[in-house]
C-alpha cells in the first residue's frame, strides 16, 4: 500500500491546528452515564483513536438541555456536573496529541419521553414514530438558544478545542430548517433564523474555540430538503461565525443516508460536499470512507479538506497511523451491526470485525516472543482465523488446516452476496495477518487422525462451525430442497415459471432472498415470525427489506410455517389453518445451523469452539481461545 500524502497534511481551522486531515466524527456510543457524564470507558475509547493518529476526535451528539436527550447513556453538556468528566477527557486527548471536539445537539421531535422524561418539543407538532411533540412557543425558542450558549461555555471551561453545531440528521435545528417539520407562522418560520441565533450565541460563549457546522446535504425523504434547497439555505447563514462546514446526509426517516450500509458506494457524499467549496470555508465530509485510498482520493479531488472517518476508526483505533504508514488496518466491513444497530438496544456499541471493541473489551494478547506451544486450528472460518491470530500473537507456533480451497468458510459465502460487498476485506486482512505472523495455512486438507498426529500439536482448536438445520417435515429430503449454504456456494438452476422459495427469514434468509430477487427470480419468502430478520437492526437490513417488500415478484408470508414439501406444491400453515400453495422450484432452507461433528481426541488438549449464531459471535469466540 502506498502512503497517502494529503491525508497527513496539517490544517489550520480557526484558532486550532489539526495535525492531519482525519476526523473521528461524532458517533453515539452508549458509553456515558444516565445523567450525561463521561465515563472511563468513554475516555478509553476516544483516547485510543487519538493515540491511533486522528487529528481531531469528537464526542457524540451531546445534548444541551435535558429535554433534548435521545439516548439513555448519551453525553450531555447541559449542566455543570459534567465538567469534571469533560476536563478529564480533554486532558487525555491532548496527551495523545489530538484535538477534542464536542458536538452540541438538541434532539427535538426525535427525542423520546421514555428516555428524557419530557414531552418532546419541536418547531411544529409533526409526529415522529407515533408521538406528537409539543410546539415551542416563540418565547421558548430563546431558552434553547441560551442552552446552546451555556453548553458551549462549559466546553470551553473544560478545555475542549472544537465545537460542532449539529444542524443535520433530523434533530431540532434541522427541524427548523426543513419545510416538512417547520410549519410555523411566527418569525421562526424563516428556516435559518434559529440556527443563526444558535451560531451567534455559541461563538459569543466560546470565542477562542473553532466552530464546525454539520449539515445534511439532503434529507432523503419526500417533502424534505433536497440537495439544492439545503445548499441554498447554507448560503443564507452567517458563515463568518463558523470555521468548517461538515457535510453529512439523511434524517431518522432516511437512516440509510445517516450511516450508509456497505453496499452504498464509497465516498458517496463527496460530490455533495464539493458544492459547498465556493462558500469560502474548509469542508469536511463523511459517508463511506473505509480506506486510506478513498480518503486520499476525496482530498485530492478537491471535494473536501477534511475526511470524517467514523466506522473505520471504530473497527481499528489505529486506522490513521496505519493509513499514514501505508499499512493495512483491521477493516470496517459496513455491516452496521455493532456500531449503529446496537444503539437501538440501548447497549454499548461493539464491532463485528474487531472483538476488542466492546464494553467490557475482549482481552487480546500482546505480541510475544516465539517459542510457545504447538497449536493446530481445524477450520479456517472467521472463528478459526481469529483463534489462529490470537494464538500466534501470544507466541505460539500455529497451523491451520482447512478442507476447502479458500479461507473464510461461511463468511466467504456471505461475502458473495450483493448486500455484503465489503465482507471480503476482512478475509483479505486475516490472510495478510496470518502471513505476517508466520501461521502455516494448509488448504484442501482434512483434519483426519493421521494429519493431526503428524503435526504433533499440544493443543487442537476445533473451529469447524455448523451445518444447516433441516426440520423434520414431509418432503424435506427431496431433490428440490437445498441448504442455504449450498445455495450460496452455487445456486441451483431455476427454470422458467419456477419460484425460489426461501424457508426462513433470519438475516441469512433475507440476504439470500434479496440475492435471488436481484438476479430476476420470483421469490416466495416464508417466516414463522412477524418480522423479517428480527435479530438484525434497521441499518443492517433496511435496504434489503425495502427491496423485497417493494418488488412485485417477491411474495412474503409472515407468521407462516412450512409443513410439507411436494414436487410442485407446498403445504403452508397460518393462523391455525393449512393451505396448499402451488410452487415449483428450489426450496432454500434457512432454519439456522447445528454444530458440525468433528473427532479430534488424542494426547493433545482439545478446545472446541461451538457453532456461533453469527459472525460477530464466531470472531469473539476465536479471540477468547487460550491455548
Automatic annotation (TrEMBL):
One protein family per Pfam: Pyr_redox_2
Names of the cofactor(s): [4Fe-4S] cluster; FMN
Keywords: Flavoprotein, FMN, Iron, Iron-sulfur, Metal-binding, Oxidoreductase
Organism: Paractinoplanes tereljensis
FAD/NAD(P)-binding domain sequence ranges: 374-598
Occurrences of domain NADH:flavin oxidoreductase/NADH oxidase N-terminal (ranges): 8-326
Designated name of the protein: NADH oxidase
Domain of life: Bacteria
Listed Gene3D superfamilies: Aldolase class I, FAD/NAD(P)-binding domain, NAD(P)-binding Rossmann-like Domain
Segments traversing the membrane: none
InterPro entries assigned: Aldolase_TIM, FAD/NAD-bd_sf, FAD/NAD-binding_dom, NADH:flavin_oxidoreductase, OxRdtase_FMN_N
Family classification: In the N-terminal section; belongs to the NADH:flavin oxidoreductase/NADH oxidase family.
SUPFAM superfamilies for the chain: FAD/NAD(P)-binding domain, FMN-linked oxidoreductases, Nucleotide-binding domain
Gene Ontology MF terms: FMN binding; iron-sulfur cluster binding; metal ion binding; oxidoreductase activity
